[in-house]
Fold this protein.
Amino acid sequence: MKCFFCNLFIVLMLTVSACSLKGNSDNEAGDLGDASAIDAAELNTTIRFVATEHDFGQVREGNKVVCTFEVVNTGKVDLFIHNVRVSCGCTSPKYDKNPIRPGRKGSIEVTFDTKGRQGNQRNSVTVFTNSEPSSTVLSFTCEVIPNIVIL
């Protein structure tokens, strides 16, 4: 008998819930769906990199070279750099974790260690943000000149 009343209660609650949802689906559910889409769009911003490529030219093997990529928040909400991934262990990024306000600039500093490298090099870093598009690839090139040891 106890199970009968439990089952009756569950059926009754499901019926009430279904009626409530049906009554709201014509008006409020459509509005909520539109609001959710707007809210998601408002979380993203737009960005512009001053440059997405850098050429160090010729560099002696063993040196560390640094370049800075500037980014401008061209949107209406704060820009957050979530992550910066490098294509090689010889490259290390440095960036501010604080938000970049609309209209303001930020930067991503990239250090390339030429130790053990020779010849033409091309590496990249991928920047992940709350922007459209959500990722941007930055690249740099150089020619690493080997150190010649004279005995």
About this structure: The radius of gyration is 27 Å. The first helix runs from residue 2 to 25. The longest strand covers residues 119-129.
